[in-house]
Write a structure and sequence with these properties.
Layout lengths: L19 H11 L5 H22 L3 E2 L11 H4 L3 E8 L13 E10 L6 H13 L5 E2 L1 E4 L21 H22 L3 E6 L1 H4 L3 H11 L2 H15 L8 E6 L18 H7 L4 E5 L19 E7 L9 H12 L9 E5 L14 H19 L6
Parallel strand pairs: 1-4, 5-6, 6-7, 7-8, 8-9, 9-10
Antiparallel strand pairs: 2-3
Helix pairs in contact: 1-2, 2-4, 5-8
């Protein structure tokens, strides 16, 4: 079987370690010592560099490293009208250094006043073109479930939304509008980053979610319906992937548990083309949930880790790929290889160096070519 457009045998989740000068520029901007335009110029410089490094490492699914973001989700969602940042979230686990993400609350009807990612996409696209490379500019945006999962009825304004059905309808609509804007700008691959379906695999987080939202099985189906509605108007040649993650902050995770509790909803109900699944250690369970994978879909298997600096054993990775393939209807043809998550889901990044990061990416490409051949697009 052929791969969906924009998916490659050696693929990636999206984020890379931020260079120190970029982090310093962000701090200066936060202190009003640098204008928004000056910060963007710094970002442009380092995005141009990270595009070249991805291409040099052998990747063909290319991102901007999420260099314009502090959090993988907040910087996108705060651009929707009707959503505000208020305080910080509480977590089941205490984050390294005590850092906690901002809480996003719904204070009014949700709207999409302007394109959010189009400008960033166009710059990324221009850098790939400047390099003369045959590659796919990949856009990563947070899943729409990120607006709901951590909220309660008290943090979704009841005047704006007396019931939640219109809330979910508006949430789907703003994503439809953003995808339409991206497609018209030339985007052909968009990935939704979703922690929440994976969090429903963790017994403690599942219980906490049920206290907020009721039956977790119903919630999982509700989230599948929300995502399906969000992508329901996409053109046939716009590939949609979804990445499931159990937390990735400074090499720390926040949830554990195999995919079985959501496997049927994930593979049979979601109308996406590719799944980027965390599988770098025992926290993610075994590969048996892959038995639900339809014959026409792809899993990008995150059996390598972005959390640790050491290089994986090539033979062990190939062994795990073959083990996973035994559960897929069409075996290795339905699999690709990646790290379980990005290297820097937040600006702080994971605990490894840039050199160690790129060594891991190059090893990944090397393994993929050994398993599937030199052409990573088939």
């Amino acid at each position: 079987m052929s791969l969906p457009n924009g998916v490659y045998r050696a693929d990636q989740v999206g984020s890379f370690l931020r260079p120190k000068p970029l982090l310093e520029a962000r701090e200066q901007a936060a202190e009003d010592k640098l204008s928004a335009q000056q910060l963007r110029e710094v970002e442009d410089k380092y995005i141009a560099d990270v595009v070249k490094k991805q291409l040099d490492a052998g990747l063909r699914s290319i991102t901007d490293g999420e260099f314009r973001r502090t959090w993988f989700h907040v910087d996108f969602l705060r651009n929707l009208s009707g959503i505000e940042l208020r305080g910080t979230m509480q977590s089941t686990n205490v984050s390294v250094g005590g850092t906690m993400p901002p809480r996003l609350v719904v204070v009014d009807k949700i709207g999409h006043p302007k394109p959010i990612q189009v400008g960033d996409f166009k710059f990324l696209q221009s850098q790939i073109a400047a390099a003369g490379a045959k590659a796919t500019p990949k856009v990563c945006i947070p899943s729409p479930t990120m607006v709901h999962f951590r909220n309660t009825r008290e943090t979704i304004d009841e005047k704006a939304y007396p019931t939640l059905e219109p809330f979910f309808e508006d949430l789907a609509r703003v994503y439809q509008e953003e995808l339409d804007d991206l497609y018209k700008a030339g985007a052909r691959f968009v990935q939704f980053d979703d922690t929440n379906l994976a969090y429903l695999c963790d017994p403690k987080m599942r219980s906490e979610a049920e206290q907020r939202h009721g039956d977790a099985n119903v919630l999982a189906r509700q989230y599948a319906a929300l995502i399906n509605a969000a992508i329901s108007k996409r053109p046939a040649d716009l590939t949609i992937g979804i990445h499931l993650c159990r937390g990735n902050h400074r090499s720390q995770w926040f949830a554990q548990g195999g995919y079985e509790p959501v496997a049927e909803v994930l593979f049979k109900d979601l109308n996406v083309d590719a799944y980027f699944l965390e599988y770098d250690d025992a926290r993610s369970g075994d590969f048996s949930p892959l038995r639900h994978l339809p014959e026409n879909k792809i899993v990008v298997l995150g059996v390598m880790t972005s959390k640790k600096p050491n290089l994986e054993d090539k033979g062990e990775i190939i062994k795990r790929l073959n083990e996973a393939a035994s559960f897929c209807p069409k075996g290795l043809k339905q699999l690709c290889l990646s790290h379980q998550c990005g290297f820097s889901s937040t600006s702080e990044g994971n605990d490894l160096t840039e050199d160690e990061q790129w060594a891991k990416v190059k090893l990944q490409v090397e393994i993929a070519k050994e398993v599937w051949g030199q052409d990573l697009s088939i």
